[in-house]
What we know:
The structure holds two protein chains of two kinds. Chain A is α+β, with helices and mostly antiparallel strands.
Amino acid sequence: MDETEQKDTEDNAPSVIDRYYTRWYRADMKGKPCEDHCILQHSNRLCVVTLAETHPILHNGRTIKSINYQISDGCSRLKNKVSGKSKRGGQFLTDFAPLCRISCTDETEYTIYSCIRGRLLEVNERILETPSLLLEKPSTEGYIAVILPKFEESKSITENLLNREDFESVVSKRSVAESQPS
Amino acid sequence: MLPLKEKDKAIVQKLLSSGCCARCVLRFCCVRLQAVYRQPPQGTLGELQDFIKPQESAESTGENKSHDAPVPPQTPQCADPPSKRAKLEPSQPEEGAAETVPSVCVVCLGILQELCDTTQALKIAEAVKMEKYEFDSLVLSVSLPAQLCVREHSCWLHVKKEVREKGLLLDKDDVIPLKEAFKWIVQGPIAKELGGVSVVTKSALEVAVEFTHQPTDADCHFLASACPDCFKPTKNKQSVFTRMAVVKALEKISDAKFLRLFACPPPQPSSCCVPQGVHCLHLSVFIAGRYNKFCRSLPQTPWVIDGERRMESSVEELIAAPVLSAFRADGFNFSSSGREDVDVRTLGNGRPFAMELLNPHRARLNHEEMKQLQQSINVSSDKIRVRDLQIVSREAMSRMKEGEEEKTKSYTALIWTRKPIKSEDIAFISDIKELTLDQKTPLRVLHRRALAVRQRVVHSMNVRFMDAHHFHLELKTQAGTYIKEFVHGDFGRTKPNLCELLKTDTDILELDVEVRHKKKVCV
């Protein structure tokens, strides 16, 4: 092993996400203030749906009461089953397809949405057992779902999403608005 | 003297008058003596014509005692136009179509006429010479237009009546095949021109000669309506009328039906076949060895997306370049026992690989030359290294993949930790044995692999502390274990993982694989 190659300083070492994923954002999903979603798009076009750091669930010391993948009488995201290399059988999602509903102990409820078109590959079942994962590690172990866009659409799905820079400017405008005395 | 008997006369008569060339007549008389075919065709024609002369033209050997050589009667007694001999012949009026210029044979379309003469043989030999193969024998393969089968069948039916009447136990299969006669004629001159190579039935070098005859391509078409099940349209082949399909249809079609749909004897063509050139192909040669990869930005195979190359060069291209040159081969197929990521180095003895070299113009390298070839690969790039390079059999290619699952792999990884660590904090890792992991298909390969959970075992590990945020991790694992995912956890989809064990975020900065196999590869 080449020991002369000194890596970046501890704090700046690019993470797995930095190296392989591009962050895209959907702000104020369905018009609901601050319900921001973050889509991690891998270089192989797979997308991981996560909560953005600014999402209300992650704020004000909330605790999660329950997470429900049953989004309607006939549809549970838990029943999603894909088989084979072409991932046959996965539920096809559109931008506003709900993935799950999260209830917090303070009686607030939030719906998490797909944000992109594609085939649902898996939802994170570990957050059902350990909801704290979602609070502690929303960008990694607390992810919501993995979606595979159609090959032809892999570039176009990000057209309705904000890149990191644009998202941060949206967020900073909010803080300005909040801090301005009304 | 032609090895013909009295009973053959009627066949010879009928075929000559239908426009068959001399050699085709011999074929239908089942003459197996190769030398006869090599005689100049005009001479043979003359002999045939003499042979069928009516009895009164001094057939009796008695009148020819002056000739010791067994030659058919040279001085016809009758007043008929003299029988022609050794020269180019206008035939007798009743012999039909032949004119001052010998016409194209209705059966072979010139294949056994001018298309097998010395000039043609020399052309074939020249084409082989130009390719500069290293060889001492060759196989001659001939590709003829399918309609020749139809014409052959037609002639066969033409003489069948005669054959039956004479009580000859002659079957269509007894007729000498056109390809065979062609080879008998040309292989001698070809072999001679190529300096004494032997033309055999099985050899590493195949010389394929192709003929076409476009004007009569439609001759086969009637078979499609007569035997439709023999001609299934396939996407791959341009024409449905392959030789095999035509032969099959001819076997099925009844004589009566054939005679209704195709002329018997076959119609006179106005041109002969056209040679389509000579294609040489040498049997593949296989080489094998082991490779090391010292570069962290080199894929094993070329990385091309949408026609655009994403990363320069590749392991297989670096190895192939000097090899293709040494063996003067047209192309290659690369195969290895497992593979590593672009950013992973391959250390130790190296990963076994095998290569098939396509159409090598040089097939044999001695020990010294192989060593030099290995050296030239190693000198050409510092990104890879090759050892144990050797020529192997075809079986080696398939053995490459065998037992991939049973192997144990050794890795060394450079680990980064988010929280600061001390040597004591990581020591316990070296005590962990036979750790079973449940690995969901990593996200980085999930786009092309099925979603599944794989159980893999980490047999043992060893740590070497480096600094507060780095250490080296050595692992011995079951084949198929995703090391990177074991280290960073892959969104928690590999459990257990190093982050859990160390209770901190961890990431893998570098990875090396050391390939170790139970069996020694190749010879």
